[in-house]
Amino acid sequence: MSSPKKITLRINGVNETLEAPAHRTLLEALRDLGHVEVKCGCEKGDCGACAVSIDGVAVDSCLTLAWMVEGREITTVSGLGDIENPHPLQKSFSDLGAIQCGYCTPGMIMASKSVIDRNPNPTDDDIRVGLSGNLCRCTGYTKIFEAVQDAASVMRGEGDKQ
Amino acid sequence: MSQQNISADAQPNVKYNQVGKSLTRTDAPGKAAGRTPYAGDYVMPGMLHMRVVRADIASAKLTRLDVTKARALPGVVCILTADDVAGREAATDIPGQTGQKRMDTDQQILVHERVKYYGEPIALIAAESRDVANAALELVEFDLEPIPGVYDPEEAMKPGSPIVQGIDNIVAEHKIRKGDPEKALAEADLVIENTFHTPFQEHAFLEPEVGLAWTDENEVVNIRVSTQVIEHFRAIADAIGVPHNKVRIRGALVGGGFGGKEDVTVEIYLALMAKATGRPVRLEYTREDSFVGHGKRHPFKLTYKTGVTRDGRITGMDVYILADSGAYVFLSPYVLLYGAVAAPGPYKVENLNVYAQAVATNNMFTSAFRGFGGMQACAAYEQQMDEVAKALDMDPIEFRRRNYLKTGEAISTGFVPPSAIWTEECVDKAWAALGEPTVSSDHIKIGQGIAAYQQSYGRLTFLHDTSECWVGVEMDGTVIVRSGVTDIGAGQISALGQIAVEVLGVTLENVVIYNSDSAVTPLAGTTTATRALYMTGNAAKMAAEAVRERLSERAAREFDVQVDQIHMAFNVVSVIDNPDKSMAFVDLVKICASEGIHRSELSMFRAPFSDYLNPETGQGQAHPDYVYGAQAIEVAVDTDTGEVEVLKSIAAHDIGQCINKAAVEGQIEGGTQNGQGYALSEEMLYEEGKLVTPSFSEYLMPTSMDMPKVQTILLESRSGLGPFGSKGIGEPALTPVAPAIANAVANAIGVRIFELPITPERIIKALKEKQAAN
Ligand code: FES
Ligand code: FES
Questions:
Q1: In terms of domains, do B596 and B629 share one?
Q2: pLDDT grade, residue B14 (50/70/90)?
Q3: Which of B49, B222, B514, B745 is most buried, judging by how many CB atoms fall within 10 Å of its CB?
Q4: Which of A50, A94, A100, A142 to mutate to test the pocket of ligand 2 (most atoms within 8 A of CB)?
Q5: CB contact under 8 A, B669 and A139
Q6: Interface of B with A in 653-682 (CB under 8 A)
Q7: In chain A, where are the structural domains located?
Q8: How far is B450 from chain A (nearest CA, A)?
Q9: Does B280 share its domain with B360?
Q10: Domain stops at, among B261, B293, B325
């Protein structure tokens, strides 16, 4: 085990410091700092539950070493909005029944945001491809596809299509 | 509701204000914002981190276990082995309210001497940090001397085979007999015989098993855990040797269950370690732990002999079911019973013989999984229906139509379901929605398939199931619901809220629901067996109705009208047909509070109780009632690669009455995905009991790339035993999916593959065999 060093991570716009050894993943670091909204499903990059955005791109935090992302802009699902002021994706997921157990949701929403950021008017296929690294065992994805389309339309200023 | 009232045209029930709507679930906004704590999100000061040391051979003798090096590692606080739990065992039988327990089903907590399955726990480590616990895992030394094992249930039944359980490895048997099946088969115009194989399946909930335990000031072991069943507290107390009131389970919203968190998972390890160390302890399974640490879906081998007349009427049926129970018994007898009861499907079979056996092997133990034996039976009987239709040269739906069980007719056990049987309506609607098939091209063959089903909701009636719920109104008009029910993602608690506000005439945002604490929320039973809505929903409705009755009596006095003239909806209390006489709900509540009128109620709902089925004939009542429906599927099969793409997936179910429409659809869409994986891609490969696919990159569940948008058709007979005439949808959603896909594939390529999953390799092999035969 390498000796730990003090690192500073910028999480949801706030700098936070922790002691981390070289092998500490960003997932572990975030959760140790109390950002437990970032979920652990496999620690192998297979499920996407741990997805966060780093400089605007969704990545699996379990495959990212904490040391490597010092100074980068890390956003978790809680950085997008809260219960009172939800991000359009959070609102669409919640209102359209795209959340069941909700364990995949934080990662799924971050991956969805990446899809919309890349293409504000995504096709269903864009969404399928963009979410293909995020497993969900509860929903069959049907309502997730609908929620992403709905949020994209809100974000384009067209209002929701519900 | 009497059967005459079951209308054939299913319309949403307009008289409800809240029920049946797609309201935003109470738990959704918190989950979307990342604010909902799951069991793994709790920490405590001084908390230790646990790991489980597991056997890496399935059948072996533990000849040496040395933990000295691990214990010596700085930061390791405690290591428990079998010596520390001498004389203690863990129950694997159905827990809960009944106090019933069968013999010989207990499991060693840690391997004492004999390893029976791959991954069986040998030692428990607790350390100051995760890193130290992980390092200690590598330092535990043990030697396993292989012992000949048995990995095939048929082998396991042969004389001289290694014994895993009991005297002959047979852990359960069930028989169902009615009429004269031998005579019926002998006299049938045609007898079709086929054998179907169904596979192991992994639940693959996204949240691995996890919990946090500590001992409190009353010496009560508290366990915050991801579970479907908080009432395991009794079994956990028995296992660690303390009174039942010294274990408290505090659930959390569960990150997926599907039956995989129905048995005890991490609880006993946590409880033992919390007691041994006096410190809070946390144990989170890795994904690999989860793959090898909880029971799987039972593989079934099902042999069907169906006798029919030339004009397509089933005259008799003989079914043999063989289930692999794996190394320990767990819920195998019950899963097997569900399979036996379901064996003929939603068809009228007056001459029936079912013989079912569950057999122990050194494979991973098998236990509860959404569908619970009933879906394995469906996977076979619906493929068999297509095969018989083919032999008769008859349209498969027409053949089914001639044999449907109708409302008021008896199922396999002689029991007449009290509700509507709308199989035909569901099949016809699903099939019509499927429409004309896409056109096949050169190597892309299109096929369509249908499957109907019968699946129970509610637990086995001889278990005498009960459920409690408390509903109370606060002085400001807000509502509190308290119930032990666990929410495993299907919206179980939100549904209770929706039921309570419907009855009380308030709105969902005014409700807070407290759930899943075995010490302080009224015990509601398990979230399993498609029972939560039926059982706890009824309890919530009863409690809310009792409160409403007292409130509306007071309102009637206030307005000087009869009680039945009082209308309560959307936070307003009014007199029917006289809108001038009205007041805010909160004002009525204030009057009641000032006069000491009781504003809360604790209710218990009891399912119908029955004796055990006749052991020789299987006749009697097994379940409270049944759900009926159908799945229609269109697939494209690439005959070059063997790849199957599901193009259309249409589900039609009579759910009785929707409580939350979006939640019902969500269950169906998710069940469809689970069934699609079971049919096509999810494969647990074992080598001598060792799982060689313990990750999501090897065990392939459908991703967003694989799933079509599922179309749902909801029928509401309002004839169910649940609140407002509801039935249940958790398990039924999944049941018909795999056989519908199998039938579509067979329709596409003209040859049936009798073993699930229908992988590309199996398709290519079947096509080659077909070509060779031609
Ligand atoms: S936990 Fe990171 S991908 Fe599964
Ligand atoms: S909602 Fe449960 S895994 Fe997606």
A1: no
A2: very low
A3: B745
A4: A100
A5: yes
A6: 662-663, 665-666, 668-674
A7: 5-79, 88-155
A8: 19
A9: no
A10: B293
- Residue with the smallest CA separation from ligand 2 atom 3 is A136
Q: Is residue B196 part of a domain?
A: no
CA nearest B41 in A: which residue?
A36
Tell me: pLDDT of B183 over 60: yes
Longest dimension (CA), chain B: 87
Which residues, other chains included, contact B657 with Cβ-Cβ below 8 Å and sequence gap of 6+? B13, B19, B20, B716, B718, B720, B722, B723, B724, B725, B726, B727
The model's pLDDT over B403-444, given as tens digits with 9 standing for 90+, comes to: 999 999 999 999 999 999 999 999 999 999 999 999 999 999
Question: Would you say residue B733 lies in a domain?
Answer: yes
Q: How far apart are CA B118 and CA B116, in angstroms?
A: 7
* B133 and B237 share one domain: yes
Of B38, B284, B696, the CB nearest to A135: B696
Q: What is the mean pLDDT of residues B723-738?
A: 97
Mean pLDDT of B210-224: 98
- Quickly state the pLDDT bin for A3 (edges 50, 70, 90): confident
Q: What is the CATH number of the domain that holds B678?
A: 3.30.365.10
**What's the confidence (pLDDT) of residue A17?**
97
Nearest to B710 among A38, A132, A140 (CB): A140
Q: Which residues of B touch A22 (CB under 8 A)?
A: none
B107 and B229, same domain (yes or no): yes
Last residue of a domain, one of B293, B319, B354: B293
Which burial class, exposed, middle or buried, applies to B700 when counting CB atoms under 10 A from its CB (0-12, 13-18, 19+)? middle
Nearest to A140 among B40, B284, B707 (CB): B707
Measured in angstroms, the CA of B151 and the nearest CA of chain A are apart by: 28
Tell whether pTM > 0.90: yes
3-state secondary structure of B324: strand
Give the list of residues 6+ apart from residue B508 with CB closer than 8 angstroms, or none: B18, B23, B24, B26, B494, B497, B498, B501
Pairing of strands B60-66, B114-115: antiparallel
Say if A9 is an interface residue toward chain B (CB within 8 Å): no
Retrieve residue B654's tokens: 């009579």
B513 is in which domain, residue-wise?
Answer: 466-606
Q: Which of A61, A101, A109, A141 to mutate to test the interface with B (most CBs of B within 10 A)?
A: A101
| Cβ of A94 below 6 Å from ligand 2 | no
Nearest Cα neighbor of A160 from A148, A102, A105, A144 is: A148
ipTM for this model:
0.98
**E strands present in B624-765:** 625-638, 644-654, 686-687, 690-691, 710-715
Q: Is A111 in the pocket of ligand 1 (CB under 6 A)?
A: no
Residue B530 belongs to some domain of the structure: yes
d(CA B55, CA B119): 5
Q: CA nearest B654: which of B336, B421, B406, B466?
A: B421
Closest-approaching ligand to the CA atom of A43 = 1
User: Does residue A1 carry a pLDDT above 90?
Assistant: no
Among partner residues B37, B130, B670, which is closest to A138 by beta-carbon distance?
B670
Q: Which of A47, A50, A105, A148 to mutate to test the pocket of ligand 2 (most atoms within 8 A of CB)?
A: A105
Is the domain A88-155 a CATH 1.10.150.120 member?
yes
**Do B456 and B508 have their domain in common?**
no
- Examine the pLDDT at B8 and tell me if it is beyond 80: no
Q: What's the average model confidence in pLDDT over B376-385?
A: 98
Using alpha carbons, list the distances in angstroms from residue A112 to A55, B262, B725: 15, 32, 38
How many structural domains is chain B composed of? Answer: 3
pLDDT per residue as tens digits for the range B558-578: 999 999 999 999 999 999 989
Q: What is the SS3 assignment for B641?
A: coil
Mean pLDDT of B26-38: 97
A109 inside 8 A of chain B by CB:
yes
Superfamily of chain region A5-79: Beta-grasp domain (3.10.20.30)
CA distance B682 to chain A (A): 12
